[in-house]
Amino acid sequence: MTVFALIGADALYLLFIWLASAIAASWLSNRKGYGERAGLATGLLLSAIGVIVWLVWPARQDSRWKVQGVIPRRGRQESLAAARARRHHDEAS
């Protein structure tokens, strides 16, 4: 019986890794402008490799990744629409 208990603990840890990688891949794909579904599917199918895929995948031009930066700042920050408008205004000038 102890063999099954040990397998159960390992399976639980693997489940947590699988779910955390799906969450991280979903967040990364959303920030890069591809939506959450693409990242969720990648994270669920490829597990931890899905996070690596989204780290190297190029971001779209007007995505949160490009406009607001790689890691969002805590607290109040300008909205995505305001950041895009400021960026387009700066490029036009």
Description:
By secondary structure, this protein is mostly helical. It has two domains: 1-58; 62-93, no CATH class. Helix content is 72%, strand content 0%. It contains five helices and no strands. The N and C termini lie far apart (72 Å). The relative contact order is 0.11. The model has no long low-confidence stretch (mean pLDDT 86).
Distance between the termini: 72 Å
Number of helices: 5
Q: Identify the overall geometry.
A: elongated
Radius of gyration over C-alpha positions, nearest whole angstrom: 18 Å
How many E-type strands?
0
Helix content: over 70%
Strand content: under 5%
Low-confidence stretches: none
Mean pLDDT: 86
In short:
The protein has helices spanning 2-31, 36-46, 48-56, 64-67, 80-92. With 93 residues, it is mostly helical. It starts with a helix and ends with a helix.
Topology:
Elements: H1 2-31, H2 36-46, H3 48-56, H4 64-67, H5 80-92
Helix pairs in contact: 1-2, 1-3, 2-3
List keywords for this structure.
single chain; 93 residues; mainly alpha; 2 domains
